[in-house]
């Protein structure tokens, strides 16, 4: 029983010392000689002074803060580049004189600014009568594309992730290298204008749980450009 009591006393004393040091952070400054006698065990097994350990801890904390700051700055630069690229896309679509120019501008901006090699647009057959514009297609209800994307056309929810070979060949038969990932996005979900598919060779470019803001903004811009050209 005495041994148990002694152990409890040691724990109590340690707790009191800890509480006292927290309440008096200048204690070691008032008794600097303790800094020369206190030792801490290093991860290598050797003993180091308290000052050396404090320097080590502060250096590690400083490095973590620097890494965090670097990550924040990189994210800020990425957001700035993305905003600039979206602005360029909007300007390109607005200035496009024809449907063909709008589709071509979309494809160029996707490749040059966003690393997205392929872009496909399907429009409701009641609105699109032409079939001679590369990358712009009639989305017939009984067509092959409608059958492949039946679930999407029913829910009209953005889909991101790997694209199967059958779908890739159906949408991009002329692609030198078939895309490995894609985003399927509705155009004017409420008015059923059609759908847009952006596809990339990078299998990680589009992922199921990625953010959808960029895709939604792009769809709005494309839909507005199409509406303007379809009625003109």
Protein architecture, described:
- The structure is a single chain.
- Helices cover 56% and strands 14% of the residues.
- With 232 residues, the protein is α+β, with helices and mostly antiparallel strands.
- The protein folds into three domains: 1-27; 32-95; 98-231, Beta-Lactamase (2-Layer Sandwich).
- The strands form two sheets. A five-stranded mixed sheet has the order 4-3-7-6-5, with helices on one face. A two-stranded antiparallel sheet has the order 1-2.
Short description:
With 232 residues, the protein is an alpha+beta fold. It folds into three domains: 1-27; 32-95; 98-231, GAF domain (Beta-Lactamase), CATH 3.30.450.
SSE map:
Blueprint: H1 2-23, H2 27-30, H3 33-37, E1 39-41, E2 47-49, H4 50-95, H5 99-114, E3 118-123, E4 136-138, H6 144-148, H7 150-155, E5 159-162, H8 165-171, E6 181-187, E7 194-200, H9 213-231
Parallel strand pairs: 3-4
Antiparallel strand pairs: 1-2, 3-7, 5-6, 6-7
